[in-house]
């Protein structure tokens, strides 16, 4: 294997293994050794392990399940809206037993949906943070520190645009280390995903606010308010399905890019025949 000026000027240390990007391999200053390990590379950024890619798959599965749950919630909300609208037009048609069963069904679906949202959110942010900090992403493409990859989702006001920006930076950074064009994945995919996520969030908030209106409005007014709440909930469910589907595409695109070998290393490829000199 050739060891020109560029190669021999690279100091000995642990670098991303050119034959397996999920681990590090020791470079002795002139050639690769047989010593490998998971962990940090010479850049000081953690190397990605197989666990990261399994986590990426888990995130995608959770997003699909959450999307299905949101779709079911939306269907039930449409049914509830139809019932409540009819009862508001003719209060004598109110079926208290059916209303009670409907309340239980909506409560159970909401509980399951919120639980899935929490599990998916934790897995998603963990996946994003690990990718953000890894040696397989060019830090020059990251406009903010790794802490914002997590905090950006929960800090008021900035949560309306920081997550979208950090995910876009992550995409660009993952491609930069592989010599790929940064814009191969259209910006519109990120914008559509983020737009539907914000739409879902706003509609869900409005649905909860309308449902909490005081019952002193009177029976008919209260039923109409609940009908409006269910209509908003149905719309939020539709937006959640679309957002989940788009998020799967974004996560898959970044994860698959990170699987590719890094091409920007100044070190030579590993001699797979076993000759490292």
Question: H/E order of the elements?
Answer: HEEEHHHHHH
Give the averaged pLDDT, no decimals: 82
Describe the largest sheet.
3 strands, antiparallel
Task: Name the structural class.
Answer: mainly alpha
**Could you estimate the helical fraction of the residues in percent?**
55-70%
> What fraction strand?
5-15%
Number of beta strands? 3
Q: What distance lies between the first and last C-alpha atoms, to the nearest angstrom?
A: 6 Å
Q: Supply the number of helical segments.
A: 7
If you compute it from the alpha carbons, what radius of gyration comes out, rounded to the nearest whole angstrom? 25 Å
- Silhouette: elongated
Widest β-sheet, arrangement of strands = 1-2-3
The unreliable regions are 1-8
What are the defining features of this structure?
277 residues; elongated; disordered N terminus; 3 strands; single chain; mainly alpha
Provide an overview of this structure.
The protein is elongated, with a radius of gyration of 25 Å. The protein has helices at 5-8, 50-89, 96-133, 147-151, 162-176, 187-211, 219-259; strands at 13-17, 20-27, 32-37. A 3-stranded antiparallel beta sheet has the order 1-2-3, with no helix packed on it. The N and C termini lie close together (6 Å). The relative contact order is 0.17. The protein has 7 helices and 3 strands; from the N terminus they run H-E-E-E-H-H-H-H-H-H. It is mainly alpha-helical.
Short description:
By secondary structure, the chain is mainly α. Helix content is about 60%, strand content about 5%. It is built from 7 helices and 3 strands.
């Amino acid at each position: 294997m050739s060891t020109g000026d560029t190669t021999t000027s690279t100091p000995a240390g642990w670098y991303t293994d050119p034959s397996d990007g999920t681990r590090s391999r020791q470079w002795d200053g002139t050639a690769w050794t047989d010593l490998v390990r998971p962990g940090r590379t010479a850049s000081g950024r953690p190397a990605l392990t197989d666990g990261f890619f399994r986590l990426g798959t888990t995130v995608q599965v959770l997003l699909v399940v959450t999307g299905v749950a949101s779709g079911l919630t939306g269907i039930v909300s449409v049914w509830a809206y139809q019932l409540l609208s009819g009862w508001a037009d003719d209060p004598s048609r109110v079926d208290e037993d059916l209303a009670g069963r409907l309340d239980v069904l909506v409560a159970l679906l909401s509980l399951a949906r919120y639980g899935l949202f929490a599990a998916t959110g934790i897995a998603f942010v963990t996946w994003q943070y690990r990718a953000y900090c890894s040696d397989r992403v060019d830090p020059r493409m990251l406009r903010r520190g790794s802490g914002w990859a997590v905090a950006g989702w929960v800090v008021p006001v900035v949560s309306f645009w920081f997550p979208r920006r950090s995910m876009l930076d992550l995409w660009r950074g993952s491609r930069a280390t592989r010599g790929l064009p940064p814009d191969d994945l259209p910006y519109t995919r990120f914008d559509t995903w983020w737009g539907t996520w914000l739409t879902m969030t706003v509609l869900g908030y409005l649905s909860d606010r309308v449902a909490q209106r005081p019952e002193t409005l009177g029976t008919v007014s209260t039923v109409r308010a609940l009908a409006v709440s269910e209509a908003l909930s149905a719309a939020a469910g539709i937006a959640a399905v679309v957002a989940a589907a788009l998020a799967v595409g974004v996560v898959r695109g970044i994860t698959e890019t990170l699987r590719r070998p890094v091409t920007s290393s100044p070190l030579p490829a590993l001699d797979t025949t076993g000759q490292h000199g």
